[in-house]
Fold this sequence. Notes:
By secondary structure, this protein is mainly α. It folds into two domains: 31-152, no CATH class; 159-300. The protein contains 17 helices and two strands. A hairpin with a 2-residue loop joins strand 1 and strand 2.
Amino acid sequence: MKRLIFIMIALLACLGMLASNENAATQLERGRRAWTEYFSDDGNLKTYLRGEFTATDGSDWENVHQFKERFSISDERLRIAVMSLYEEAVTPRQDTSSQQGFSLKDLLEHNALLWLGSCADTKVKSFLRDLAGDSSQADIIRIIAVASYLRAADEREAKDALMRFLVSESRMDSQARSSIIEDARLAYIEAGQEKKRAIIESLYVALANEDAKWLFRVYDDILSRLSQQYADSRQRRYILEMLINATPTCLADELALSDLKTRLDKLQKVKPTTDINTNLVTLNSRDFSQSPPGGDAVAVAAEATTEPTTTTRVSGVTLRVLGSLLLLALVAIGMWCLMRTREPRH
């Protein structure tokens, strides 16, 4: 009898969980519809974004695409609202309030720029590119503009931007370049295959033209994770040797030298097996819809991370069917246990 009571309690708990899950899904959908209705008003959308951009814990700009999709917000409406907030932020006015060392006006400006990368049209992309290239702007504004532009750019635009700000005579300083390399990694993560190739192959060329020893570590940490072709390449070792022997450009180079020598020692214990392109002319002539000569790091990485395409969609009907099957199974188990523990009659 105790077993039967235990089984009945478990049965009720399972049914309660099923009902709770179905009810939670219903509540979430109601909430989504309510927010969608709220955001359908341009004034409400702008008010929400102002709060998002000046929040203490920062803006969730990495999930803008989900925000747009979940609440049915078009690129055009989001772009208008975000650009309006940016213009509001850069309008000269007295502002003494601050969060984490930045004025609320600064936060509004920075986060508006970041969000523009997820809803940019041709005009906004041109604006971001010009802002990034404006040497009269503060470095942080230029870096954010580059990050936003890289998210919005197509493969050729991304390649041109990385060459401009990492390699050309008008490249940014080494500290800014460090941030741009990381921004390129973030843009790579959400990019399509052709743009991934453009980004990673541009970073190969940028590294080959780098003269700051300490930046090798930034490039190397990112590229060795993204590209096995780079990790096993002859060029990786050659570039590292060249930088070790190069004249230091700053104190950071001298401090990085020991680590660079340690990295080279490890690399010299393994035979290199691949090659990567480090030639700017070759990069400029690349058709990124085609695999590069010598191996396609992007395609290899995509194959390694591909999940099975079979998906399971659980709806309310499915939950009710599963609940019914679970009920039958538990009742059958309960009857079996009851029969086994029942005393024989005399």
